[in-house]
Amino acid sequence: MNVPVEFPLGLAAALFAIGAFGVVFRRSVIVVLMCVELMLNAVNVTFVALARELGAMAGQTAVFFVITVAAAEVAVGLAILLVAFSRRRTLDGDQFASLRG
Amino acid sequence: MIAFWVVALLAIAGALVVVLHRNPVYSALGLVLTLFQVAVIFALLEAPLLALLQVIVYAGAIVVLFLFVIMLLALEPEKRLAAPFPVAVAGLVLAGLLGFALAAASTVPLAGAGQGALPAGFGSPESLAASLFGAHLLPFELTSVLLLVAVVGAVVLARRRS
Amino acid sequence: MPEIQTDLLRWIVAAPLLGVVLNIAAALGNRAKLARLVGPASVIVAFGLALVAVLRLAAEPAGAALVDDVYGWIEAGPLAVNLAFRVDALTAMMLLIITGIGSLIHIYALGYMDHEPDVARFFAYMNLFVASMLVLVLADSLALLFVGWEGVGACSYLLIGFWYAERANADAGQKAMIANRVGDAAFLIGMFILFWGMNALHLPSLKLSAINAAAPLLASAMPWLPTLVCLLLLVGATGKSAQIPLYVWLPDAMAGPTPVSALIHVATMVTAGVYMIARLSFLYAQAPVAMDVVALVGASTCLFAATIALVQDDLKKVLAYSTVSQIGYMVLGVGVGAFSAGLFHLLTHALFKALLFLAAGAVMHAMHGEIRMSKLGGLGAKMPITSKVFLVGSLAIAGVPGFSGFFSKDMVLEAAFAGGHRVAWLLGLMGAACTAFYIFRAYFLTFRTEVRAEPEKMAHLHEMPPVMTVPLMILALGAVAIGWLGLPGGFLWGNVLGEWLAPVLARAPGHHAHLSAATLLGLMGLATTAALAGIALAWVFYVRSPALAGRLAARSGAAYRLLWNKYWIDEIYDGLFVRSYAAWSRFAWRVVDTTIVDGLVNGVGQSVTLLAGLWRRVQSGDLQHYALATLAGAVTLVGGAWALTAGF
Amino acid sequence: MEVFFSLAKVVVAFVIILQLTLILLWVERKGSALIQDRVGANRANLFGGLLPFNLGIVNTWMADPLKLFHKEDIVPADADRFLHWLAPFVGIVPLFLTFAVIPFGDVLKVGGFTIDLVAAPIPASVLFVLAMASLAVYGVVIGGWASNSRWAFLGGVRGTAQMISYELALGLAIVSVVLTYGSLDLQAIARAQGALMWGVVPAWGVFYQPVALVLLFIAGMAESKRAPFDLPEAESELVAGFFTEYSGSKQSVFMMADFVEVAIVAALVTTLFFGGWQVPWLGREGFHFPGGLDIALPSLVVTLLQIGSFLLKLFIFCWVQILVRWSLPRMRYDHLMAFGWKRLLPIGLVNLVVTAVFVLAFEGWTVR
Predict the structure, then answer these.
(1) Which regions of chain D does DSSP assign to beta strands (E)?
(2) Does residue D128 sit at the B interface (CB-CB below 8 Å)?
């Protein structure tokens, strides 16, 4: 079975758009973080699809790096969330506007 | 093709659950669903190793971490789900435009695409390893440093201040 | 020329560097005992290694060299400099001087610094100095030589101001630093021009051997270049080697501990200029004008400093000006093309002047810092060894036949005469007479004549411990014997040192004139007469009828004041450079900095504040707003890219 | 035909695991009784009491499952009904899937077909095992959270942290073996162990990686959440931990998952360290004893011997785990975490580095 490259790319576009919308739409910071993961995965799908299309392993290697970096990002991000929650007792993004100019 | 459509629709359904469900636990489970479908797509696209890695790291570690934090903080379903209405609408419009633009861009023909049969062993552990430890050795090593920094940073942040 | 690869040379430098590390550790841990062990030991080890290297070199045919290529150091465009060491005949001589005399002085310092609490810091500086000096002489490229050159300068600064709690000492250190900066700037510019010239000949190298080999080519391609470079390097040399016009720092440098003066400001560092000129002898040989300037500078410094030394009261000052004067002889020697004669004087001077300084240090140590000759006198009875070795040193520097100074000074003067530099020769001869006078004046006033010091000081007076006297005696032996390495042409075994050095030095034009035996003997006789006359005069003035000196001083008031105040050179420099520089600085501060620069800076700051006040409203602090903005940017980019590729 | 063989293999694997689960349940009951000097299960004897001794196997084999599946399924009032229903199945499916990649024999040659005796012959099956092991957490997390009960919730949190922590040591132990045999394929690893060291001793992983064996065994037991690592379901503290609020068939699924995990650990130990289906000196055509004695055997016999060997080893290591469970007391939770992170993980890392150095420095150190 051979899926034409446009289909995974279209799926990636959809996932990316949903994730991007979620980042803007949701208040809860932890869900925003999940939406970022969605967007990263959309990018990964693009990488893998194009890697197959171009016959280049570099695309899959890039996905490897993205997965690794995402793990690091989530670890640090959730640690920050824990600290933030212990300060404000909430994860509502509106409550973290103390850098307002 | 049928498999792809099933998987793709499940993935989008999962993503929508992430974005729209009030309960963060369901959001996380929706994320797992999507990630799992992405793993299947990887497998369909000649990347079996990445599919397994995706399950191990994303489903097995990252989302579990999300769930763990949600449970640790005992987060309730949110009463105020969304951002203010104008922001939400603007986000919807812009995200829709972006999705459309990306999808449209993917129809632009690629230079050097579809050069016939893939090389033997494409996507196998050996080929990924050759790429990782060959051309991308430096990024690989830097990633390990990044992980170390992340571990130290997470520990420092999460540690109780005595 | 055969070059023998060896890993030995790097260890010669490494030994004192290791000493530095251990001494710093000792200083941090307050372990004086460790420092007193490591300080001298590391230099002695270096001496042993240097001896091995020199013996290996001696086993090779004449003109051979040991080479140690450590690693590639600088690569910039066409320039590639290796960190590489090289030992040939010239370097071998310097190596033995530095590590040999250095060892003796380090041992002596054990006794001299016995009450010093900060001895670890002292030995750290001293070892660092030895390491830098070794780099200077071992360097196989001008760039590396410059590293050593600056290293010894820095150590000199640190050691002059070793007792920095006293203002005068710190000032003396700064004076040395600044005077050297002037010379080093010229040195650097000279090096740059030299490299530019080498590169123009497609020989992009700063290797000393390459420069020497390319010297004739340079001279034929760009006749002005060797002269310019040599003059600039000469300015560098006058700074480091305390020649006119940059000599002013050296007398003040005696503020440091006496072993420092003996090691740095007599035996090794101040001869770096002479060494550098000899090292580049082939280049200098292509620049006759520069050579004449060198000779002139040497000869005039020689007499000029000697006259100042005539009337000084401070024993160490006398020796300091004497050093300036003696280095003048060396510079004169290399300036008239008799490179080996200049180097020979460098060698003998290192021994006898180190001896004199250390003996003076012993006096100073015994008299609790008293060094004014008007407060000394008659110490010979209480300090017999010190007195005797000082006498040996005095005879050597005065040029009494049989002692080392006689042979080397005579060789320089003879070369000046033979080369046709009659004026320089005359200046040197007069300097020799003055030398004999002031050194014996110092000897008589310190060790003979009646006691002028306070009785309680005399009561505690005693001879120095063996740790100080033994090095003195070894140096005294050397001060006598070393001269016999360079006997005038054909006599007994002849000029051994000259033959040893000959393959690595240029034969300057004009040095070929052969003097007849009669002329030689006549010149020797003249020099000897001048020396003996000086000694006799000193004896008359200060031993037989002491009142005579005072009367003469009173009678020739103006001349005496001129000499006593060292020709007011310090004051002239102060007015000419320091004050005008201060005035310019004040202008730069008040006008340029406060008004213009500060105004600009503050203006920038204020305008940024103003703009930021407007822009800060954009920063809502709300995550969603930022995300929205990012999203809008992404849409613009992707949409734009798609539109472009789709061809709208 | 291919499809038929694949289905047959899946059925074989599934039957093995299901039957093993039930047998293990009985073995545990009787075994614990032996250890505690009791009689143990003694009702509903086979053949109606005709045998002189009472094995009591019927009630664990048939009566118990039947009873459990007919019990009322109670869902707490405030529970999340959907997730409460989902949790047991999310918990057990990955475990069943794991068994699909465990090889239970070499190749069977039947009428011109060559059948690889592993239910799902995928490359990188080692990673598949790790992936499934990491998915097994979800049953615990969801079950603990969906019940909306303090006990279940605490059990869920404990279980999550414990499983994530010990997964690292598990992975490191497995990776060491992977390095040793140079393959990510369990079947290839099992085949490699058929070689002989010095022509006599089978090249089993236990001889190359004794440290990894200990690590894997301990970490595997911790993954299966059984004593001494049964903190998530510690009866004396948390009632029944994450499945406190479960009853009837759903609870039986959780219990079954427990035994499947025991079987998986035993299967991994067998495959990675004890030659898997290998019978010493048995090749595809028969025995080749070191002395030079050869006995030719048909492929079917060889395969049966291999499957028998696999089952025997599997059973032995299950039994060892049951012994451990009933012998050791429960650990304290902070000790558990410290043990995982500060002992097993560093040991695993050192073992991995040493292995890597060996592999690099002594080529041909292992039989490949």
Answers:
(1) 107-110, 113-116, 196-197, 201-202, 282-283, 286-288, 294-296
(2) yes
D121: three-class secondary structure by DSSP: coil
Q: Could you give phi then psi for residue C74, rounded to 5 degrees?
A: -120, 135
- pLDDT exceeds cutoff 50 at C320: yes
Picking from B11, B82, B119, the nearest residue to A26 by CB comes out as B82
Mean pLDDT of chain C: 87
Contacts of A41 in chain B (CB under 8 A): 34-35, 38, 58
Contact between B32 and B63 under an 8 Å Cβ cutoff? The reply is yes
What pLDDT, on a 0 to 100 scale, did the predictor assign at position D48? 58
pLDDT for D133 beyond 50? yes
Tell me how close the Cα of A38 comes to any Cα of chain C, in angstroms. 15
Taking the domains of chain D in order of start, what are their residue ranges? Answer: 2-361
Top pLDDT among D131 and D203 is at D131
- In angstroms, the separation between the Cα of residue B117 and the nearest Cα of chain C is 27
Quote the pLDDT of residue D368.
47
Distance, CA of B134 to CA of B130 (rounded, Å): 5
Which of D135, D153, D223, D360 has the most B C-beta neighbours within 10 Å, making it the best mutation to test the interface with B?
D135
Among C609, C620, C623, C626, the residue to mutate for chain A (most A Cβ within 10 A): C623
**How is residue C97 annotated by DSSP?**
I
A96: which chain C residues are within 8 Å (Cβ-Cβ)? 621, 623
Taking an 8 Å cut-off on Cβ atoms, the answer to whether B55 and D134 are in contact is yes
Identify which of C618, C628, C634 has the shortest CB distance to residue A101. Answer: C618
Overall average pLDDT of the D28-54 stretch? 71
For residue D351, CA distances in Å to C617, D163, D213, D316, D347 come to 57, 21, 11, 26, 6
- C623 and A101 in contact by Cβ < 8 A? no
Interhelix angle for C208-221 vs C142-160, to 10°? 110
pLDDT of residue B115: 60
For residue C647, give the chain B residue with the closest CA: B108
Q: Is the pLDDT of residue C563 over 90?
A: no
User: Could you state, in chain order, the average pLDDT of each consecutive group of 10 residues for chain A (101 residues)?
Assistant: 77 89 84 90 90 83 90 87 82 73 64
Query: Could you tell me which chains touch chain D, where touching means 3 or more CB pairs under 8 A?
Result: B
pLDDT for res C274: 92
Q: What percent of chain C has pLDDT over 90?
A: 33
